[in-house]
Amino acid sequence: MSVEVYYDDDADLGLIQGRKVAVIGYGSQGHAHALSLRDSGVDVVIGLPAGSKSRPKAEEQGLRVLSPAEAAAEADVIMILAPDTAQRALYTEAIAPNLAPGKALFFGHGFNIRYGLITPPADVDVAMVAPKGPGHLVRRQYVDGKGVPCLVAVEQDASGTAFQLALSYAKGIGGTRAGAIRTTFTEETETDLFGEQAVLCGGAAALVQTGFEVLTEAGYAPEVAYFECLHELKLIVDLMYEGGIARMRYSVSDTAEYGDLSRGPRVIDSRVKEKMRKILGEIQSGEFAREWVAEDEAGRPNFAKWRAEGAAHPIEETGQKLRAMMSWVDRPITETA
Ligand SMILES: NC(=O)C1=CN([C@@H]2O[C@H](COP(=O)(O)OP(=O)(O)OC[C@H]3O[C@@H](n4cnc5c(N)ncnc54)[C@H](OP(=O)(O)O)[C@@H]3O)[C@@H](O)[C@H]2O)C=CC1
Ligand SMILES: CC[C@](O)(C(C)=O)C(=O)O
Ligand SMILES: [Mg+2]
Ligand SMILES: [Mg+2]
C-alpha cells in the first residue's frame, strides 16, 4: 500500500495565513505549534483556563492569551492541544458553543474522535496535523530550518478544502519540510498508541531498565551499566535515524553485529511479538482507551504510583550524576523552547 507524501511545494501557506488560529493548550505541542505558526506569519491566539500555569509562558513569548471559549469564538481554526483526557470536557464547555459553519476543528492526535469522545457538528471541517515527534523537537527543528514529519488527516470535509487547509497548517509548523503523510484518524490513533506503548516509550524504557537491572544485579558498576544501556542507545539510534538499521550494523563492530543478529531475536522473541499483538488488539478494540479514561476519572491512582516507581528506579540517580558532567545533554525537562 503506497502513501501520499506532501512537501513544502505541495502546500499553500497563504491558506492558514488567511485564518485566525486558536491553539488551545500551551504544553509540549501547543507552544511548538503556536510559536512556529506565528513565525510563519499566522495570526495566533492561545486558549488557556484562568490559573493555568502555562499562561505566563505564553505571555512571556509575546502571545495573546484568552480563555478557551474566547479564543474559540475569535478563531476560524481551533487546534486542540490540551491533554487527550481533558479534551472532551473542554470541547463540550468551551469549544462546541463557539463553533459555526465554516470553522475548522483541528487535533494533534486522533484519540477523542477515534473513540467517539467528541462528535463535532456536520458543518465544520475536522482535521488533524499530528507531528511524529515530541513538541520540543517540533519547535527546535522549525527554528533550525528543519521539520518533524506530520500525519495529516481529514475526518469531516464540510468546506471541501479541509485537506489543503490542514496541509497549509502543517507547512506553518515545518512539517512539510520533512514530509506530511495523508492518513486517517483511525490509522494515526492506533499506530501512535501502539508505537508509544510497545516500542518508543513503553518498550524502550522497559528494555533499558531491564538491561540496567541485569548488569547491576550481576555486580557491575551502575555507571558502566548506565552508559551501556541508556547513554549509548542514543548514539545507536542516531545511526538508525540517519541510515536505517543497516547503517547502524555497518558502523558497529562485526562482534557487535554478530551478537545483534544472533541474540537480538532471543530477547525480542515470538512471545514478545504475541504480547505486542495483544497490546494492538486492546488499542483497536477501545479497551486501552476505556481503561485510560477511567484511570483519569478516578484521579490517576495507578499512573501516579507507576510514575513514582519509575522516578525512583536506580538508573535515574546514576544518570543524574553522570549527566551533570555533560553540559550538552543536561537539558531541564521543563524547558519550553
Ligand atoms: N507531547 C507530544 O509531543 C505529542 C502530543 N500529541 C498530542 O498533542 C496533544 C497535547 O499533548 P501535549 O502537548 O503532550 O500536552 P501537555 O500536557 O504538554 O500540555 C497540555 C497543555 O494544555 C493545557 N490544558 C490543560 N487542561 C486544559 C484545558 N481544560 N483547557 C485548555 N488547556 C488545558 C495545559 O495547561 P497547564 O500548564 O495549566 O496544565 C498545557 O498548557 C494531545 O492530543 C497529544 O496526544 C501529539 C504528538 C506528540
Ligand atoms: C511517542 C509519544 C508521542 O506519541 C509522540 C511524542 O509522538 C506522544 O503522545 O507524546
Ligand atoms: Mg506520537
Ligand atoms: Mg502519542
From TrEMBL:
Record: residues binding Mg(2+) 1: D192, E196
Keyword entries, A-Z: Amino-acid biosynthesis, Branched-chain amino acid biosynthesis, Isomerase, Magnesium, Metal-binding, NADP, Oxidoreductase
SUPFAM superfamilies on file: 6-phosphogluconate dehydrogenase C-terminal domain-like (SSF48179), NAD(P)-binding Rossmann-fold domains (SSF51735)
UniProt record, GO biological process: isoleucine biosynthetic process; L-valine biosynthetic process
KARI N-terminal Rossmann domain sequence ranges: 3-183
Catalytic center residues: H109
Enzyme Commission number(s) from the entry: 1.1.1.86
Origin superkingdom: Bacteria
Residues involved in substrate binding: S253
Cofactor(s) needed: Mg(2+)
InterPro entries found in the cross-reference section: 6-PGluconate_DH-like_C_sf, KARI, KARI_C, KARI_N, KARI_prok, NAD(P)-bd_dom_sf
Domain KARI C-terminal knotted: 184-329
Record field: catalytic activity: (2R)-2,3-dihydroxy-3-methylbutanoate + NADP(+) = (2S)-2-acetolactate + NADPH + H(+); (2R,3R)-2,3-dihydroxy-3-methylpentanoate + NADP(+) = (S)-2-ethyl-2-hydroxy-3-oxobutanoate + NADPH + H(+)
Class of the enzyme per the UniProt entry, highest EC level: oxidoreductase
One GO MF term: ketol-acid reductoisomerase activity
Binding site for Mg(2+) 2: D192, E228, E232
Pathway(s) the chain acts in: Amino-acid biosynthesis; L-valine biosynthesis; L-valine from pyruvate: step 2/4; Amino-acid biosynthesis; L-isoleucine biosynthesis; L-isoleucine from 2-oxobutanoate: step 2/4
A cellular component annotation (GO) from this entry: cytosol
Cofactor-binding details, from the entry: Binds 2 magnesium ions per subunit.
Entry binding sites for NADP(+): Y26, G27, S28, Q29, S52, S54, G135
Database matches in Gene3D superfamilies: 6.10.240.10, NAD(P)-binding Rossmann-like Domain (3.40.50.720)
Function: Involved in the biosynthesis of branched-chain amino acids (BCAA). Catalyzes an alkyl-migration followed by a ketol-acid reduction of (S)-2-acetolactate (S2AL) to yield (R)-2,3-dihydroxy-isovalerate. In the isomerase reaction, S2AL is rearranged via a Mg-dependent methyl migration to produce 3-hydroxy-3-methyl-2-ketobutyrate (HMKB). In the reductase reaction, this 2-ketoacid undergoes a metal-dependent reduction by NADPH to yield (R)-2,3-dihydroxy-isovalerate.
NCBIfam families from the UniProt entry: ilvC (TIGR00465), PRK05479.1 (NF004017), PRK13403.1 (NF009940)
Family the UniProt entry places it in: Belongs to the ketol-acid reductoisomerase family.
Protein name: Ketol-acid reductoisomerase (NADP(+))
Lineage: Bacteria, Bacillati, Actinomycetota, Actinomycetes, Micromonosporales
Gene: ilvC
